[in-house]
Design goal:
Blueprint lengths: L1 H24 L18 H8 L5 E5 L7 H20 L4 E5 L8 H14 L4 E6 L5 E6 L2 E6 L2 E6 L9 H24 L5 E5 L11 H7 L4 E5 L13 E5 L7 H12 L3 E5 L3 E3 L8 E6 L5 H7 L1 E4 L2 E4 L2 E10 L2 E18 L12 E2 L5 E4 L6 E8 L4 E4 L3 E4 L18 E8 L28 E6 L9 E4 L2 E4 L14 H13 L19 H6 L1 H33 L1
Parallel strand pairs: 1-2, 7-8, 7-9, 9-10, 10-23
Antiparallel strand pairs: 1-5, 3-4, 5-6, 11-12, 12-21, 13-18, 14-20, 15-16, 16-17, 16-19, 19-22, 22-23, 24-25
Amino acid sequence: MVIRKRSWIQFLLIISTLILLSYLMSFLRVRVDLTEDRRYTLSQVTNNILRNVKNDIYIQVYLDGEMPVPLKRLKRSVREMLDEFRIASSRKIDYEFINPAGIRDAAQREAHFKALYDKGLNPVNIMADDTEGGSTRKVVFPGMIVNYNGIEVPVNFLKNNSSLSYEQNILSSIESLEYEMIQTISTLSSDTVYKVAFIEGHGEIPEIEVADITFNLARFFTIDRGVPGGRPGILDDYAAIIIAGPEKEFSEADKFVIDQYIMNGGRVLWLFEEVDVNADSLVYGRTAALYRPLNIEDQLFRYGARVNPSVIQDLECMIIRLTVMTEGVRQQVVQVPWIYYPLLIPSPAHPVTRHLNRVKGEFTNYIDTVGLDGRIRKSILLYTSAFTRIVQPPFMISLKEAEQVPDEREFNRSNLPVAVLLEGVFPSAFRNRMTTHLHSEKNLDVKNESVPTRMIVAADGDIIRNEVRRAGNTETPLPLGQDKYTGEVFGNRDFIINCMNYLVDDNGLMDLRSRELRLRLLDGARIRKERKKWQLINLAGPVLLVILSGALYGYLRRRLYTKR
């Protein structure tokens, strides 16, 4: 009895010890990422942001229900990333996966779809298996709504780059998940909201034609518009400014204001071209391309870039709808390539443009980087295809050109830069110049050299311009980068948003877009060639392994008991 009682006491002590250890271990979080590309490890920047989140964040992920395997893999990656976010934020982040197509009533389901679209989530049509073994077309919203302090912000994380395969787009989406999520959370939870200004007063693009990008940038910044008016210091409160498609010359006073803003660390997104093309006149069949200087050429030259007054023609271009006329008789509408609307290639080597879709340009110029100042680093963000040529103004542009088959031998230029990032210490455009006549302030400290800063120069103002649908007195801006005829969406909006986020980013958040995961796919050629062999190995291999294990166990057992 004493031995039995002692055994029970030992048993209870062991169980109690295990329970106590399990309870204590629940407070110890040990997470080890054994993957080669560290796909389950959050960056230090992300951890810092999540640790400083003050209030709870609720996230609704609209990626649930029946869907193809690649989207299920994306869903799993989203869930894993949110789990990591939840742990790093001390459980201040909660989330829910929702099937937007799970509503049975068709009218209510369509109303729900419209509500999600109005909130900023982009729908995608997919083919999914149904319960009867067939397939049906379904609508999914691969994105989420982040709720923080009563504010809702949409996040779309599915990439749709037409130049990549379906699997590569899914991989790109997984690679960008951490950035897409933490960028929104950082903006919502930050105590500081950066201010951005659209510069006016030089014939810039009207407000209605930049309405879409203004609305989307408002998710991250406070947006203003205004005229510098030759007043130094008026821009100092802004983290960045946008100069979008000016058509009139800049005064020396306004140039001086912008220059000193840059010298004090200001960031600028320049979008303009130096060839004037009145695209509206093309409704009559022809228009003229004329040289139009803006009096900022010398300023940009000092900073390290020159926009060349030449129009690009590119064989990789937009498709436009054209009504073909034959002897005055109206024919059918046909789709033809329009070489004046190039589809610009984003650089895969920079976080601003990594995984971006092609960017649509219109009557685009190109850029040369100039100067040998080692303190200025220059990175190409957008460039043309390998089949490009340039045309010098003045010249006429006719829609009849679209009916002609271009001679590829004449398109002998390649990869011409269209957008360039400049980073470093810039010399003032007004160095060694008298500036007292440009301002009325007596004690103004004129700087001849900037602090480290950055700017982006794009040789096409139309990159930021959205199309507008007009019906009577009603004007409705269309999504930036969307072709109003085909509905195809290009990368213009993402490019501008990434540019602005990079310009004002001092924490290195944009570097998360450089994350690279390896796509481990099966070799299709070997699958076709060695199909029978691998089927035989997969079917017979496990059976043979069980038989051999049983035989080995029986042999060892007989040998052991035979010796006894």
